[in-house]
Amino acid sequence: MNFKSIPSEFEYLSWPEVKNISKDIRSTIIWPFGAVEQHGPHLPLGTDSIFVDEIICEVFKLIPSDTPIKKLPTQYIGFSPEHKGFDGTISLSSNLITLLIKEVGIQLADMGFKRLILINAHGGQISLLNTAARELRSVAPKLSIFPCFLWKGVDGLSELLTKDEIENGLHASLAETSLMMALKSKLVGDERPCEGIKMQIPKGWSLEGNAPTAWFTEDLSKSGVIGNSKGSNKELGNSLKSLLVNHWFKLIMNLMKSDWPNQYK
User: Fold this and answer.
1) pLDDT at 2 over 70
2) 219: burial class by Cβ within 10 Å (0-12, 13-18, 19+)?
3) Contact 204, 211 (CB under 8 A)
4) DSSP for 135-189?
5) 3-264, what's its fold?
6) How many Cβ atoms from other residues are within 10 Å of residue 103's Cβ?
7) What is the rounded CA–CA span in Å between residue 177 and residue 124?
8) Which residues contact 39 (CB under 8 A, 6 or more apart)?
9) N or C: which terminus of the chain has fewer CB atoms within 10 Å of its end residue's CB?
10) Per-residue pLDDT averaged across 153-160, rounded?
11) Where are the domains of the chain?
12) DSSP reduced 3-state for 93
């Protein structure tokens, strides 16, 4: 079968096409994860989901069509208890998210797929997806699982963003607002809050760092923003988009060109 004739979206394939692709020793599925949660008064609830979906779709435009890799529908609703104090936030339990990943992952493994990339854009569920990946591997040992965070390990971010933004822009701040302006500007409101970055944290402790605390957004902010969204602009957003797309394209192609794990040689 000619892979060039079939789409990148898993749900658009026929079952014989899935069967043919899954036989490849490098067959891979990407499953994007986001969230439906408050992102301040100026960004949509689905910000994280929109980001990961848009970036991965752009990545697939660069991937050669005969590459045995497909994309599952983006999981929009995630684990967001830290934002429950704000209307619009919908959060699934950690147990349900873990069960979802395990059930889908087991079925993909049974089909014959060799690798599953969980590409997540919501910072509040990084640890959860890492744990779920381990649990899935324990029941589907022949499936390699890669729990990844969209913003992690991306070279060049420090050249586009200030140190303050990188350290304190935790939610709906400069980077996220700018990226949404580049991707879907009509969804961005006019307000530009700056909040939640002057907390007196005990020395040596942090919100997200070496010694973090399990914070809730309402502990830090009335607007839902943690950081400074002032100065957000479409030009920065386009630069962030290019950086993210190029990073994940290179990373995914490095994997697709490899025989990892060696047991599948």
Assistant:
1) no
2) middle
3) yes
4) HHHHH-TTSEEEEEETTTT-TTHHHHS-HHHHHH--BSSHHHHHHHHHH-GGG--
5) Rossmann fold (3.40.50)
6) 12
7) 18
8) 45, 47, 171, 172, 176, 224, 225
9) C
10) 95
11) 3-264
12) coil
